[in-house]
Amino acid sequence: MTGGPRPGPVLAIVGATGAVGTVMREVISSRADIWGEIRLIASARSAGRMLPIRGEQVMVKELTADAFDGVDIAMFDVPDEVSQEWAPVAAARGVAVIDKSGAFRMEPDVPLVVPEVNPAQAFNRPRGIIAVPNCTTLSLIVVISVLHKAYRLREMFAASYQAASGAGQAGTDSLYDQLAAVAGDRTLGQQAGDVRAAAGDGGAFGAPLALNVIPWAGSLRSDGWSSEELKIRNETRKILGAPDLRISATCVRVPVVVGHSLALHVVFDTEVEADQARKMLSEAPGVLVVDRPESGEFPMPVDVAGTDPTVVGRIRQSMDDPHALDLFVCGDNLRKGAALNAAQIAELLIAHANWPLWQPREIRTTAPCGSAPASASTPRLNGSSSPVATRTATPFSELACVTASAAANAAAEA
Ligand SMILES: NC(=O)c1ccc[n+]([C@@H]2O[C@H](COP(=O)([O-])OP(=O)(O)OC[C@H]3O[C@@H](n4cnc5c(N)ncnc54)[C@H](OP(=O)(O)O)[C@@H]3O)[C@@H](O)[C@H]2O)c1
């Protein structure tokens, strides 16, 4: 960096080397640049590495208490136990902590925030910590909250189709390794055991994910439920403020690199109408409706990876219940499912707080695909001025536009 310290709030990204931390750096680099210094933090293993953010190379620091000196906002993209120990250390130093781990999500005095759904909760943080929901919950919550507001949700049945990257960099690496091991052999997948023999022990998943699906994500909880299934239930209830909501989920890992999908059957207090629901969703911030089965256009990870919105389609009136809808949602588990949601929360905090270190200044913006630059004085609070949120009648070309801009960022990092 040249020309002395940048004015603006100081951001720390803890876990900057991991799967979420990497996307966090990309997201911060592609949104309005509202930050002064950005500090990259990881374990001692990574200290001294140079990583890109905002087009600059920044040296990774080791996670220590002193690393939070002068920091305004810290995003934690680290395993639960690391957040459990270090988030309170940062908060005790006056840092606003935005934690993406599962360490604090269900604590009653820690808000669980999705800016499109419950933004006010970001300002109710007695412990100085804001939790970001699990990536699977985040892949459905923006859509479900719109329907809940209109029709009052009574019950939800969910089946997830979760990407390998939901298990971190190790999950992505395992899937790519397995795909390489099975590639080219057209005999595989036709006999029990042949994929196991070719793909190895399953790496991060305990079973091969290539050429397979695994009806399991997370760790074992009581009565055979997985931790991931309980997160969908508990977190959805907390975010919607509906503690008695009936929710049942089955989580399945599929051989997709990025992009969690869910098939949902949702039952409401009032009668619902698919067209009306589709219209409401098409007007909701952070949601993109892609629902043209006649031309084979549905929400799919291959179109959604690297983009911001939660995409919803296959919206159908239940054939047996006028109070119920069936639908399919898909979102990037590393963007809205983690990094983007955290960036939105940070922008929300900055827009509504007097940061001692923050002086108003011109904000550098990116304006991909011909969109107008964002206002220099209005940080984006809920993604509504991000490229994808300016919806058009051609959502797929819009997604392609954002994918291109994300790819450009990724290429800049290579
Ligand atoms: N993957 C997803 O889809 C997703 C979505 C939402 C939330 N999350 C949550 O986000 C968090 C990070 O997940 P991830 O998928 O990015 O995991 P990951 O790829 O395994 O990255 C873990 C990060 O934590 C750092 N770290 C590990 N131990 C540390 C320690 N003792 N001190 C300091 N830094 C340490 C690592 O640094 P080194 O490189 O130095 O080891 C790395 O930067 C987890 O809590 C996860 O549950 C993940």
Overview of this protein structure:
The protein is of the alpha/beta class. Helices cover 30% and strands 18% of the residues. It has helices at 19-30, 80-92, 135-151, 168-182, 194-199, 227-240, 274-282, 301-304, 335-351, 395-413, and strands at 11-14, 38-42, 50-53, 56-59, 61-62, 73-76, 96-99, 129-131, 153-162, 246-253, 260-268, 287-289, 310-317, 324-331. The strands form three sheets. A six-stranded parallel sheet has the order 5-2-1-6-7-8, with helices on both faces. A six-stranded mixed sheet has the order 10-9-11-14-13-12. Strands 3-4 form a two-stranded antiparallel sheet. Helix 3 (135-151) runs parallel beside helix 6. The protein is globular. The two termini are 20 Å apart. Residues 356-414 have low confidence and may be disordered. The structure holds NADP nicotinamide-adenine-dinucleotide phosphate. NADP nicotinamide-adenine-dinucleotide phosphate binds next to helix 1, helix 2, helix 4 and helix 9.
